[in-house]
């Protein structure tokens, strides 16, 4: 076993990523070389929790469990809370029951629910039964909300104050809950029936004179319903730039809060999911290097099969126009160029509209506006490309072929942009994921429809 070298101690690490990468490589090499545990323990316990997470993300399940057991108790909990829920589930399966029970009990209720969703039902029930009654009730309350609702991701651990309290009383209440509240920087204000009536910041409480009632310094609250979609609620929290967003039930009673860090985590997960599906794959829900090859295969094979079946439309169109291609072989040279341009145009429009949907810039009722707007954009792009194609192709292959290619560009771009812009909105109308209706299906549809347009124009212009 060779001695391990590392670039300085933790208090000398810089924030530019250089030393962090060096330490990550050093730990990986230590695991590869079977470094003695005392030396490796000293190394990992000197690292910030975020750096340990980066190392764990790159290790196999077995090595991840070994390295995790070397962490100190407080460091282990902090690291565990920062891991993706899928990796948390992997660790639960590798750790001893006593270790798992202690970790599970120390998690916040909303984090527990995320972990439970990744575990087998039998393991989840056993962990729930091992919780103290109060923590079990808090966790069960969150589990009662629908999947993908914000109630499933909110925290029930908050500090609520009353409007008749003085600022001094409210501050004493905050001090009493510093260790068990999710956040104390923004506090909901509720009445005797727990109905939300306002929101007050810690800054305003500290600034107010001692005897000032909370009701005089509180602000009008923004809120979401517990049954609202988690991504929409998180987007609202981010758009309003709130540190915490109150969550209420149908009777307007406070049931929890959504903190900004949880909102950003939800948006990051949703963005990763959209990007994966736009590219024709299922989201991994774990770091790339931590995903087994079988998981990578499963995430891609279904979409490849679907797209392969869809691509048979293109083959059938080519078969229908086989005689046309035999008469003018030159037309075959432009097939890849045209279907590629059509697919790219449609994908650009779909990606733009999907993003606008996510940001709330457009809604399904804007379908007519989007259709007309994307048609104009596609037509403008088609004219620009068509004029260029006519000039270049006409010089090389003759005016007639140049005219066919130019007109096809105009028609194809207008059609592809219109279809690409409308598809995500139609997906939202039928309550499907807009990303699923975007690039993969649009490319397949535009390929087939584009060839029909191409050969239709060719037969009309060339008289074949």
TrEMBL record:
Protein name in the entry: Magnesium transporter MgtE
GO cellular component labels: plasma membrane
Keywords: CBS domain, Cell membrane, Magnesium, Membrane, Metal-binding, Transmembrane, Transmembrane helix, Transport
Subunit annotation: Homodimer.
Organism encoding this protein: Mycolicibacterium chitae (Mycobacterium chitae)
Record PANTHER family: MAGNESIUM TRANSPORTER MGTE
Family of the protein in this entry: Belongs to the SLC41A transporter family.
Domain CBS: 154-217
Cellular compartment(s): Cell membrane; Membrane
Keyword Magnesium: yes
Any one GO molecular function term: magnesium ion transmembrane transporter activity
Signal peptide: none
Chain segments annotated as transmembrane: 301-321, 377-397, 404-429, 441-462
CDD domains associated with the record: CBS_pair_Mg_transporter
């Amino acid at each position: 076993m060779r001695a391990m070298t590392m670039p300085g101690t933790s208090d000398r690490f810089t924030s530019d990523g250089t030393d962090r990468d060096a330490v990550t490589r050093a730990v990986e090499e230590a695991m590869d070389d079977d470094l003695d545990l005392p030396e490796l323990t000293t190394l990992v316990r000197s690292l910030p929790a975020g750096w340990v997470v980066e190392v764990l993300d790159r290790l196999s399940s077995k090595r991840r469990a070994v390295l995790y057991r070397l962490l100190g108790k407080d460091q282990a909990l902090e690291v565990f809370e920062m891991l993706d829920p899928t990796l948390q589930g992997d660790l639960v399966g590798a750790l001893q029951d006593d270790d798992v029970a202690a970790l599970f009990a120390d998690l916040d209720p909303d984090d527990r629910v995320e972990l439970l969703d990744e575990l087998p039902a039998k393991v989840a029930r056993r962990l729930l039964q091992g919780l103290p009654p109060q923590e079990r009730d808090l966790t069960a309350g969150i589990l009662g909300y629908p999947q993908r609702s914000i109630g499933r991701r909110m925290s029930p651990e908050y500090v609520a104050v009353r409007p008749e309290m003085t600022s001094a009383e409210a501050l004493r209440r905050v001090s009493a809950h510093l260790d068990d509240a999710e956040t104390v920087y923004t506090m909901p204000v509720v009445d005797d029936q727990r109905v939300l009536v306002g929101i007050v910041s810690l800054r305003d409480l500290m600034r107010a004179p001692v005897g000032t009632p909370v009701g005089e310094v509180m602000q009008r609250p923004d809120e979401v319903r517990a049954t609202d979609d988690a991504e929409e609620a998180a987007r609202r929290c981010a758009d309003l730039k709130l540190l915490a967003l109150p969550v209420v039930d149908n009777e307007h009673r406070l049931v929890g809060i959504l903190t900004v860090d949880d909102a950003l985590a939800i948006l990051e997960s949703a963005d990763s999911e959209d990007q994966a599906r736009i590219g024709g794959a299922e989201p991994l829900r774990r770091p790339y290097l931590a995903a087994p090859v079988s998981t990578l295969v499963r995430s891609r094979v279904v979409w490849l099969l679907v797209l392969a079946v869809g691509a048979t439309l293109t083959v059938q169109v080519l078969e229908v126009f086989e005689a046309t291609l035999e008469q003018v072989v030159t037309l075959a040279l432009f097939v890849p160029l045209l279907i590629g341009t059509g697919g790219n145009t449609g994908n650009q429009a779909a990606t733009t509209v999907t993003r606008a949907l996510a940001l709330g810039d457009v809604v399904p009722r804007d379908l007519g506006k989007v259709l007309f707007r994307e048609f104009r954009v596609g037509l403008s792009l088609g004219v620009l490309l068509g004029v260029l194609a006519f000039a270049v192709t006409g010089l090389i292959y003759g005016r007639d072929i140049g005219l066919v290619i130019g007109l096809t560009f105009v028609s194809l771009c207008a059609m592809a942009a219109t279809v690409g812009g409308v598809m995500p909105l139609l997906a939202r109308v039928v309550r499907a994921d807009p990303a699923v209706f975007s690039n993969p299906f649009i490319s397949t549809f535009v390929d087939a429809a584009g060839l029909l347009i191409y050969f239709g124009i060719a037969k009309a212009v060339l008289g074949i």
